[in-house]
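Human:
Care to share another protein and its fold?

Assistant:
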Amino acid sequence: MTSRFPAALTDGALVGLALIDVWLNLDNTDAPSLAFAVVAAVSLVVRRRQPYLVFVLTLPALYLGPTVIAALVALYAVAAHSRDRRVVIGCAVIVAVGCALPWSLSGFDEESTRAAVVLDVLYATMAAAAPALLGILTRTRRALSERLDEIELAHEHERQLIEQTTLAKERAQLAREMHDVVSHQVSLIAVSAGALQVGSTAPDTKEAAAVIRQLSVDTLDELRHMVTLLRASGSLPTELVPQPTLAGLRQLLATSGIEADLRGSLPTDLSAPLQRAIYRTVQESLTNARKHAPGATVTIHMGHTDTTLTVEITNGPPIRTTVPLPSAQHGLIGLRERAELLGGTLETGPTTDGGFALRLRVPKNAG
């Protein structure tokens, strides 16, 4: 904690005050006591670094002479430094005894009354208690200030972590949407342009189709790099709204640009996460079929039991020339993540006829 006044100015003021105390009591002080009093006053300069040593150095002046200010300041330094209340109480008792005793150990005579002794003890106790309590208060205030600084730093660190987590989730969401939606549409454009380029006989049409296909391929490549960067700095993906449902599967198949056969059905009361996972699985399978097996038919089997939902998607080998499109395999990784988050599994692999198969199994009550 920063001091309100410069340390040198405070030290000078306290040493000066202790020396004034000595000067005011010169008439009642002999040479040895004067020497002890001066040493006690000067030692206050190092009370912050050596509070116990300074306290010991002030005791001879307290017990052998009438000067008390140096001992009270030293007691405050001990109380402000020590965390052990027993040490502070012990030092306060020592100072109180020194203040209560007559200025000379031989000066206590029969003229001192019992009331005067009681008053001396009371005043001495109050004189010792004041700097001790003030020192304890100062140390407690300093400890509280340090604790508040630590709490503030912890809150700032927590705020930064929350911001980083939020940003990572937003990046993961953006990466998922870019792959599931934007890449899906651009790959459809690229495949359609490639088919037009191969099937058209008009030179202008073939050239325009080639340009469209190349632009689509370049766009997919840029999207792949962006998705890679976003996923690298993201966390487990979460969903954006609005999200697709199973009600949109028919529209998805109709606009996929390939022949798809949907067989079976699923319950209509599935949770939103389950519907999104199934929709994205079908969407990614159609995209992969367009990329790697153009002209092949995609068959989608859906079924369920009392506890499990199953979606199996297969496609045959490519019939037309394959258009090379960039891919980083983020789609299958994302589908597997979705399945695992729902407590299910995703199995993929080639079929015996040269095609590809994907099987999604998830608990019926997931999500």
Notes: Residues 103-110, 235-241 have pLDDT under 50 and may be disordered. DSSP finds ten helices and five strands in the chain. The first strand starts at residue 260 and ends at 264. The beta strands are 260-264, 298-304, 308-315, 345-350, 356-363.
